[in-house]
Amino acid sequence: MAIKLYELCGRDPGQLFSPHCWKVRLALRHKGLDFETVPVPFTKIPDVEGGASKTIPVIRDGDKVVADSFKIAEYLDETYPSAPTLFGGEGGRQLSRFVESWSQRVIHPALAKMLILDIHDILSDTDQAYFRQSREKAIGKPLETIVEGREAHVEAFLKSLEPLRGLLGSRSFIGGETPLFADFIVFGPFQWARVASAFSILPKADPVAEWFERCLDLYEAEGRKVPAAA
């Protein structure tokens, strides 16, 4: 029986844009596991598996329900040890926690500041109302104000990627010559940007952009199955 993966979607059910869901999608492909996607809009998340989690991704594997992208990756490695590893051992698992912490403190907030209105615009009317109310309450500003002058923030964001750029100058993936879950962690927010917004951020010649293109091509170009925003 295929694993069921609940993924966040926009107005179009095929527009799967969540960075955390993409981590899991590539993890499943990396492990060679069969899965089926269940698109879920923001306002339907409370209905997933009887309210199993306030956020997605969530997977159902037989009678097991697991939420949270990192916990799902740990579950997949523990449950399917004969399939390719996601962490390369305990040390890799702990280092992936660092990569996750760095990504969520550096990449995610910077991209959200530039793309939040574009994300709003790809949602259904009901989800737009929820998204605007919740984000404006949390941030204290209208979405339109948050993205004002976003072009001026790109340079600082690109500079913040220098540790990643330096690493990728000597290898194909964060995991080395082949990808690991750490790659999927960082791929997630860039795929989020690619699917949700046409705003250009990464120069083509940037080593980070070249790595991202390699990640898009992984597993029969899984990342390209959802088109980039026009």
UniProtKB/TrEMBL annotation:
For this protein, the record's InterPro entries field holds: Glutathione-S-Trfase_C_sf (IPR036282), Glutathione_S-Trfase (IPR040079), Glutathione_S-Trfase_N (IPR004045), GST_UstS-like_C (IPR054416), Thioredoxin-like_sf (IPR036249)
Q: Which domain of life is it from?
A: Bacteria
One Pfam family named in its UniProt record: GST_C_7
Q: What Gene3D superfamilies does the entry give? A: 1.20.1050.10, Glutaredoxin
UniProt keywords (A-Z) are: Transferase
Biological process GO terms, please? glutathione metabolic process; L-phenylalanine catabolic process
Tell whether Transferase is among the UniProt keywords.
yes
One MF annotation (Gene Ontology) recorded for this entry: glutathione transferase activity
All residue ranges annotated as the GST N-terminal domain in the record: 8-84
Recorded hits in PANTHER family, A to Z, give: MALEYLACETOACETATE ISOMERASE (PTHR42673:SF4)
What is the name of this protein? Glutathione S-transferase
- Species in which this protein is naturally found: Fulvimarina manganoxydans
